[in-house]
Specification:
This protein has 596 residues and is an alpha/beta fold. It folds into three domains: 240 residues, Glutamine Phosphoribosylpyrophosphate, subunit 1, domain 1 (4-Layer Sandwich); 189 residues, Rossmann fold (3-Layer(aba) Sandwich), CATH 3.40.50; 148 residues, Glucose-6-phosphate isomerase like protein, domain 1 (Rossmann fold). The protein contains 17 helices and 25 strands. It has an eight-stranded antiparallel sheet with strand order 3-2-4-1-10-9-11-15, covered by helices on one side. The termini are close together. The structure holds 6-O-phosphono-alpha-D-glucopyranose. The site of 6-O-phosphono-alpha-D-glucopyranose has 15 residues, from helix 9. 6-O-phosphono-alpha-D-glucopyranose (G6P) binds next to helix 9.
């Protein structure tokens, strides 16, 4: 979590940094800060709150200078305070640092810097002080001190430091992303960011910093950039890559929130998701068929789409695959062999737990194929092959269009594995067009009436079976994230083994009733809940007398997980707005979870 943007070039740095950091706000929004270098003075402005809130009082654009660093924070060490906001300075104010990740050994480092004056509770603040210490006590120059400091840090992280004395900028990567943007023609303009979207408006030319590497931009010698290994110090040659990625709009485009805009974009994103290269789909389907064990791995919502895949592969391809939450994957390492296949699913391609799972897989020579939504992400580069799910930039922390796009690609893979790729495509094209019809203002209004009815409910239960059991779990995530409601998903058959005791008069229970072999059992389970006073909200293609409120969805066969999650996305949005919460920025969460 946390977003970093840095700039060196002819333009006013604060303008570029302000725009860039706003784009990266999805990575954390506890506090924001910018430091620029004008003459030989570093000036810092920082405060708690989102970018616009902090900017309204601080006026970041008042910062002069053509060199600067910026940061948006998701707190790990130290509360949400102005002091803990980045950038952090050394004692002399000549070195400023922004950082993403965790310095696991910050306490030991801080203990060794006894004479330094610390102003925050963050792990990050040890970095500028350590650089300062290494320069003063060991006589290292700025670059050597940054290298040594980076090598001293334990844990996954990345940071960018500027020095007012040497007018250099140094970036070091040890586990979290940093990408360099270069001006199309001149070699005097450089961008550094956690994610390319922070500078794609200015350039498509990028260079990727890999783990244990550093980059130094030296303003004194005409903005020259040099790459080197953190460990050996040897110079590295880097390839310039042209990014041709249509990110899609990153603006709200007239909607009040990104969340509802992205829900509505599902009118088009399902069709975009299934627009895949057949040869590649068939090749990965073959990999799955011949693998000795396939693991689908993801976190949060992506973890739930992996679970959907497990059911889809059983139902459609008669193939046993395993879905595993990424943070648990290492516990399966004893089963991994070079014949194992891993399919890693991630919207951002930067989630720390998934990256660690990939490391574990790679250590056992497992082939890794990723399903991603962000081009150029760390996972893309760490995988043997990848699919883009083509959902376009997803800005709301709560995943919606990327989720249904992932499910669409996973469904396609299941059909391809069954030798029925064309059938799968037709099914999904039909689902895409059904979603297009479904997402109209009347539908949203009908769901907003239900949101009003549920406004003061403290608990919401969701039940599903088969391919829609993981959708019940995903629906619970949507309601938890946006409305801060206790929402829990269950396999409907498990109700009688405990959760039924929680149902009393008026408890809302959403029953996802697909028109498949699970339908009758689902109706029976909903009836049991109703008999105990439960208020039944049915998500189904057809109404049923057991439903107190019916959310109609199109009958799209085995693509039902795609259409069944959409009404809950809309419901969660409306409850959140009615409760006065900002659905784009759920408290305590961030979109890109780059710490374990
Ligand atoms: C965070 C986000 C979720 C997302 C999860 C995994 O928790 O808030 O929306 O599902 O991370 O992220 P990924 O980028 O790997 O899909």
């Amino acid at each position: 979590m946390c977003g970093i943007v840095a700039y060196v070039g002819p333009k006013k740095a604060s303008e570029i940094l302000l725009k860039g950091i706003k784009t990266l706000e999805y990575r954390g929004y506890d506090s924001v800060g910018i430091a620029t270098l004008a003459g030989n003075i570093i000036s810092v402005k920082k405060d708690i709150g989102k970018v616009d809130e902090a900017n309204a009082t601080l006026n970041f654009l008042a910062l002069e200078g053509n060199i600067g660093i910026a940061h948006t924070r998701w707190s790990t060490h130290g509360g949400v305070t102005k002091e803990n906001a980045h950038p952090h300075l050394d004692c002399s104010g000549k070195i400023a640092v922004v950082h993403n990740g965790i310095v696991d050994n910050h306490q030991q480092i801080r203990a060794g810097l006894g004479s330094h004056r610390f102003l925050s509770q963050t792990d990050t603040e040890v970095i500028p002080h350590l650089i300062e210490e290494l320069m003063s006590k060991e006589g290292l120059d700025f670059v050597a001190a940054v290298r040594k400091a980076a090598n001293t840090l334990n844990g996954r992280s990345a940071f960018v430091a500027i020095s007012s004395e040497t007018r250099q900028m140094a970036a070091a990567r040890k586990g979290t992303p940093l990408i360099i943007g270069l001006h199309e023609t001149s070699n005097e303009e450089f961008f550094i960011a956690s994610d390319v979207t922070a500078f794609l408006d200015y350039t498509n030319k990028v260079m990727y910093l890999d783990d244990n590497e550093m980059a130094v931009v030296d303003v004194k010698i005409d903005g020259k950039i040099a790459f080197s290994s953190l460990t050996s110090g040897n110079e590295l040659k880097k390839r310039v890559v042209d990014i041709h990625w249509h990110v899609g709009s990153t603006e709200k485009e007239g909607y009040d929130h990104f969340l509802i805009k992205e829900v509505m974009e599902q009118k088009h994103t399902i069709a975009a998701a299934i627009n895949q290269d057949d040869t590649k789909i068939l090749a990965v389907a073959n990999d799955i068929k011949s693998a000795f064990g396939t693991f689908f791995v993801g976190c949060g919502t992506a973890g739930k789409t992996c679970m959907v895949a497990e059911y889809l592969f059983s139902k459609i391809a008669r193939k046993h695959i395993n879905s595993v939450v990424a943070s648990e994957f290492s516990n399966y390492k004893h089963y991994l062999t070079p014949k194992t296949l891993m399919i890693a699913v991630s919207q951002s391609g930067e989630t720390a737990d998934v990256l660690e799972a990939i490391d574990v897989a790679k250590s056992k020579s497992v082939r890794v194929v990723s399903l991603l939504n962000v081009f150029g992400s760390t996972m893309m580069r760490a995988s043997d092959d990848f699919f883009m799910v083509n959902a376009g930039a997803e800005r709301a922390v709560v995943s919606t269009k990327a989720t249904t796009a992932q499910i669409a690609v996973l469904t396609l893979l299941a059909y391809a594995t069954a030798g029925k790729l064309q059938e799968g495509k037709l099914l999904l094209m039909n689902a895409a067009s059904a979603v297009n019809d479904m997402l109209n203002p009347r539908y949203e209004e009908h769901i907003s009436k239900l949101a009003f009815l549920l406004l003061n409910k403290k608990d919401i239960f969701i039940i599903g079976r088969g391919i829609n059991y993981p959708i019940a779990l995903e629906a619970a995530i949507k309601l938890q994230e946006t409305c801060y409601t206790h929402a829990q998903g269950f396999a409907a058959g498990e109700l009688k083994h405990g959760p039924l005791a929680l149902i009393d008069e008026g408890t809302p229970c959403i029953a996802i009733v697909a028109n498949d072999e699970t339908k009758q059992d689902m109706i029976n389970n909903a009836t049991e809940v109703k008999a105990r006073g439960g208020y039944i909200i049915g998500i189904a293609p057809e109404n049923n007398e057991v439903f107190d409120y019916w959310l109609k969805v199109p009958d799209v066969g085995d693509a039902s997980p795609i259409v069944n999650i959409i009404p809950v996305q809309i419901l969660a949005y409306h409850i959140a707005v009615m409760r006065g919460y900002n659905p784009d920025y759920p408290r305590n969460l961030a979109k890109s979870v780059t710490v374990k």
